[in-house]
Structures are given as C-alpha cells and as structure tokens.
Task: inverse folding
C-alpha cells in the first residue's frame, strides 16, 4: 500500500510527540490528535513506527499512549533497572518480586472489575497499603502450600521473607531498608510514571486519569482480570462471589464490532 508523503510526515510528528511525552491528548495536541483519530493511514503508519520499536500505540478514551511491550528495555525498564529503581542496594529477586506484589496489591485496592466502573474508591492511605500487603502475604502463606504457590506463579513464602527483613519505622523513614521507605520509593516511582498522585502530607494515594484509562481499557479485560485473581490468590473467583464481572470497555468495543 502506497502512502502519501503528507501522511508519512504527519505520522512522524505524532510518533515524535509520543516518544517525548509517551501520550498525546486532544487538549494539548489538537492537530496531531485529530490527524491520528481521523485518518486510518496516519494511524497505521504511527502504529508501524511503534511496532518497529517493540511498542504499541493505543487510544484509550481521549488519549493516545505509547506503551512499551513487556520485553522492551529501550522505552521501558528491564528487570535489573526496575530492581535498582524500586529496591534497596544489593537487592535480590525476592525484593524485586515484593515490589511487584506491592504494586499489584495497590491496583486491586483501587480497581474491582465487578461493578459498573473499574475505579471503586477515591484514595488509599499509604498506611492502609502497608497493612494490606502484610495481610495478603500472610494469607497467601497460610492458604497455599509451596506446591500451590509454584502453580500460581507467586511464592508468597519468599516474598513475605523479603518483606519481614525490612525494618519497621513509625517515624516514616525513607530508607529502602524499612517497610515505610520501601513503599515510599515505589509510590514515588509510580508518580513519576504519571500513574498515581501521592500526597505525602495527607498520607494519601490517588490514581491518575492515565492509570484509570489503562486499567479500564486494557488490564481489566477478562483474561487479565482472571490472571490477577489467580496470582494474588486472596480474591475469590467472580462466580464464587455470586457476582458477574463487568466487561471492560475494550471488550464491549470488540463485542459491538
């Protein structure tokens, strides 16, 4: 298929803005946003550029995002880089998986996937997050044998061991060797990625529009939602809870088409 030069040029401008900001909305980039959303040619060309860099270009609601794929170390983070960003010096894989468990726990506190909307609460206290992490790790160890933990893909025993090795400091230490500091640096990292707002003086965590859209359009589709349930292990399957999980917006869109 032959593309006109003006479409190629415009797709390059769209992609350049995505590389710079990782997102593009109609409010701040009206011309580029309109070009992408009204021209199939420009949209295809932009997606091809993303594919060349092992990333996806997706529109969720009124925003277009550049999303690095799981193994993309160029636009995203490698495991080693994330470990350095989130964990203490000399961290092991146990510490890394603990950081991922904290993030997953935070997501399940904000998003239910059961009702009319994915987002179920306005804020979470950092202290509540710390308590919930402790409770779910303890529940996972108590509820599942080591063999069952292996099957679920999450070794609660090892992760809890890493968590308990962190000191407690009621003064709110920022040292990564404390539970409070470990959570603090994870929250600041998520804030840097524009996924949450962490209001430290109020001990309050709020989600951003970016995270809400990403959860609603992508992560809370049926397959990913079931995967989260299996991994966390502390949530019942929807059928057992007597409720029917709602469709994500992406699923509704696929059903209509």
Result:
């Amino acid at each position: 298929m032959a593309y006109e030069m003006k479409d190629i040029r415009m797709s390059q401008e769209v992609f350049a803005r995505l590389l710079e900001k990782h997102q593009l909305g109609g409010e701040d980039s009206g011309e580029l946003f309109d070009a992408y959303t009204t021209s199939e040619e420009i949209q295809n060309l932009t997606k091809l550029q993303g594919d060349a860099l092992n990333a996806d270009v997706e529109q969720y609601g009124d925003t277009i995002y550049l999303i690095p794929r799981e193994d993309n170390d160029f636009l995203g983070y490698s495991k080693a880089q994330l470990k350095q960003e989130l964990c203490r010096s000399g961290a092991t894989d146990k510490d890394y998986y603990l950081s991922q468990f904290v993030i997953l726990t935070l997501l399940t506190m904000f998003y239910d996937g059961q009702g009319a909307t994915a987002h179920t609460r306005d804020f979470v206290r950092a202290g509540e997050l710390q308590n919930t992490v402790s409770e779910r790790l303890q529940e996972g160890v108590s509820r599942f044998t080591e063999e069952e933990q292996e099957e679920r893909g999450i070794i609660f025993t090892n992760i809890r061991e890493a968590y308990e090795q962190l000191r407690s400091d009621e003064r709110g230490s920022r040292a990564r060797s404390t539970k409070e500091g470990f959570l603090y640096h994870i929250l600041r990292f998520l804030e840097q990625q524009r996924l949450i707002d962490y209001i430290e003086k109020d001990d309050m965590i709020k989600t951003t529009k970016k995270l809400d859209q990403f959860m609603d359009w992508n992560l809370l589709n049926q397959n990913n939602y079931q995967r989260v349930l299996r991994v966390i292990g502390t949530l019942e399957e929807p059928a057992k809870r007597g409720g029917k999980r709602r469709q994500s917006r992406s699923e509704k869109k696929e059903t209509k088409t």
